[in-house]
């Protein structure tokens, strides 16, 4: 597994964990914080997928 693939999986895991915490918290400000954090990790995962696809296409 490449280092980029490992980072992608880590970002996806963090996003899932943040979304789970957000869905279970009762405090509105904490919920918003974890929702934003989960969204940020989702964006990073999307960017990482794009980077991996670009590198793979260039190598082909």
Automatic annotation (TrEMBL):
Protein name stated in the entry: Uncharacterized protein
């Amino acid at each position: 597994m490449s280092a980029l693939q490992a980072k992608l999986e880590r970002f996806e895991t963090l996003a899932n964990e943040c979304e789970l915490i957000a869905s279970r918290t009762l405090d509105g400000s904490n919920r918003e914080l974890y929702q934003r954090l989960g969204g940020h990790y989702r964006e990073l995962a999307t960017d990482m997928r794009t980077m991996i696809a670009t590198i793979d296409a260039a190598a082909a």
